[in-house]
Amino acid sequence: MPFENKDPEGLRTQFNHDYSPLNGIIKKRFENEKDYFTSKKRSETYTTSILIYMSGIDLSHNKLNGSIPSELGNLTRIRSLNLSNNFFIGKIPATFSNLAQVESLDLSFNMLSGQIPPQLSVLTSLEVFSVAHNNLSGATPEWEGQFSTFNESSYEGNQFLCGPPLPKSCNPSGQAPTTLPNGLNNDEENDSWVDMYVFRVSFVVAYTSILLVIAAVLYINPYWRQVWFYYIGLVGMNCYNFIQDNLCKFF
């Protein structure tokens, strides 16, 4: 992120540059300085030694191309990273999950593809996030933590992305997942009640259908009607004799 000196009094700025071959980062010490640092879509004024803790990279609008170097994930103390409006291709490096202190991450308006690394959900300091207008696909990161605060504008312009907060669901059935456990319990109770209701209705319909079929057969065929009443009478007589014989034992 560039630092822009807007001090009207022209305060003197001193830089001590120490190059570290291990990480390739130029360390700066600011003394008697007043600067503006842009992060989280707002510009703030910082003075003196506090600038040591303000670090960022803004490479937007530079027509850069190729893949994003995964080594950028080694900048663990960076606060802001803006790579928007370039021609970057390939996947978003999963190493960006190491940017533990990053507050603003803007990768919009590139040609990035593949899935957004789910590991990014561990970035608890992230307040501004945008991958809009790329060629990303698959599910958005888990809608929890800081990622639950980002709206649809953070992902717009990626027609193959799905999942909250986008209206397109990753569920093949097209049904949005239920988020409340109580809602799940209510759905299960409703399903049980519907199943029991369907069973009772089916039983009554089946029983009625059987009676109607028997009545139709007896009405159409006199022989079967005669046999039916004969067996009905026989069963009735046997039941009467059984009851009479058993009742006599008690009286």
Short description:
The chain is of the alpha/beta class and 251 residues long.
What is the strand arrangement across the widest sheet?
6-8-10-12-13
Q: What is the H/E string? A: EEEEEEEEEEEEEHH
What is the C-alpha radius of gyration, as a whole number of Å? 38 Å
Largest sheet: 5 strands, parallel
Residues in helices, as a percent range: 25-40%
Assigned CATH superfamily of the largest domain: Ribonuclease Inhibitor
Record field, number of beta strands? 13
Mean pLDDT: 75
Number of helices: 2
> How large a portion of the residues is in β-strands, by DSSP E?
15-25%
Number of domains: 2
Do you know the CATH architecture of the largest domain? Alpha-Beta Horseshoe
* CATH fold title of the largest domain: Leucine-rich repeat, LRR (right-handed beta-alpha superhelix)
CATH class of the largest domain: Alpha Beta
The coarse silhouette is rod-shaped
* Terminal-residue CA separation: 108 Å
- Which residues form runs of ≥5 with pLDDT under 50? 1-30, 176-181
Membrane topology: Single-pass membrane protein
Main location: membrane
Keywords: Glycoprotein, Leucine-rich repeat, Membrane, Repeat, Transmembrane, Transmembrane helix
Family: Belongs to the RLP family.
